[in-house]
Amino acid sequence: PRIRTKKTKRAPKGWKHIEDALMEMTQKMRDVENEPHEGKRKPETVWPIYRLHHERSRYIFNLFYKKKEISRELYEYCLREKWGDASLIAKWKKPGYQKLCCLGCIHKGDKNYDSTCI
User: Fold this and answer.
1) Could you tell me which of 67, 81, 65, 62 has the C-alpha nearest to residue 15?
2) Degrees (nearest 5) of the Cα angle 103, 108, 112?
3) What is the C-alpha separation between 64 and 117, in angstroms, rounded?
4) Nearest partner of 92 among 59, 45, 43, 70, judged by Cα
5) Which site among 3, 60, 62, 104 is 20 to 30 Å from 91 CA-CA?
6) What pLDDT digit, counting tens, does each position of 78-116 carry?
7) Single pTM value for the model
8) Under 8 Å between Cβ of 50 and 85
């Protein structure tokens, strides 16, 4: 999430409804980031971060597209303020990508032999 300044737009109506859940996920993310990682391989240290990032984006996606509990204005505010990953949510809307965990799974450049992890 972005830092709030005087020029930041006010949160739209309905923000109080989802703010607690998003703040709880942010606190979990901080706890995971500050966790000691001695004895772990590098990928093992980032897996919980990817999981929480996915969980937060999926929460916003489900509230808007599945449950229809938040307005478009609030949904766009969440994406603009980086509470959810807009690129990942865009992939979830396409057929065949509904269970995608992160964009790294379909990015060919990071893997050996120009393949993907899916």
Assistant:
1) 81
2) 125
3) 29
4) 59
5) 3
6) 999 999 999 999 999 999 888 888 887 777 766 666 666
7) 0.86
8) no
Residue 115 tokens, joined? 């393949």
Q: Counting Cβ atoms within 10 Å, is residue 43 exposed (0-12), middle (13-18) or buried (19+)?
A: exposed
Which residues in 94-112 are b (16+ Cβ under 10 Å) and which e? eeeeeebebeeeeeeeeee
CB 50, CB 101: distance < 8 Å: yes
Amino acid letter, 116:
T
Structure tokens at 84: 């959810």
- 7, pLDDT greater than 90: no
- Phi, psi (deg, nearest 5) at residue 35: -65, 140
Yes or no: say if 69 and 17 are a contact pair by the CB < 8 Å rule. yes
